[in-house]
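Incident log, structure service

09:12 report received: a user says their structure output differs between two submissions of the same chain.
09:20 pulled the input from the user's history:
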Amino acid sequence: MDPLLNGGHKNRRRINGHKDRSRINVRAIWLIATVAATTALIGMTGCNLGPKADLDKGQQLFTQKCGSCHTLTGAGTSGDVGPNLDYAFKQARANGFDSDTVKGVVSYQIAHARPASPQQTDVYMPRNLVTGDDAENVAAYVASVAGVPGIKAPVFAPPQFFASNCGGCHTLAQAGTTGTTGPNLDEALKGMSAADISQSISDPNAKITPGYPSGVMPQNFGQTLTPPQLQQLVAYLQQATGGGGTKK
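09:34 re-ran on a clean worker, output below:
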């Protein structure tokens, strides 16, 4: 069984074998160049006098919608499909960009994301992945941490990680989540071994739960979670569903 099949947004690119670092660097350099061009446009729009953004909501949305593709130390994400946002904005901050300017750049990129190119049709960011207040919150959050000197990754907390990344698709009573796209984990995980739960997270297509399609759950948790984080998440899920076991 694969009890951790969920309906999170699909990765736009699955990386198999050796990662193409040169293409990743090209995308980061492209974003850095875009920062300068976008800043000129943002500078003509005046100050943002709207309501204060919700940074906690922005972090949650970034982790859910963007973290599988982007590295951002402050959010604890390490995706490498898209540009490393710390790298992209580090030099911009050194050149005098403040957080309001970074926020404007991120907002512009959300609404005007780089389209797929003939050379890289498998690598692109959908436009308006978040909109309205959600986009405002994500942009403000990214601006608060991206490229900030000395920023530390948050302490990994399995309950929060599950709620942010999995709860929209899975029911788990202890987490207070009621998603129905994927299996009810209170039932599916009960008595399951740690090894099988771990495989369901890191290789979700290895065993598919009857009644659920393959290729729906994000494929890269094995890369975005460190081994200790994966172990902590598995332990949390076992504890939340009544302890470990040997069920296959």
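09:41 both user submissions now match this output. Likely a transient worker issue. Closing.
09:42 reviewer note: The longest strand covers residues 71-72. The two ends are 7 Å apart (CA to CA).
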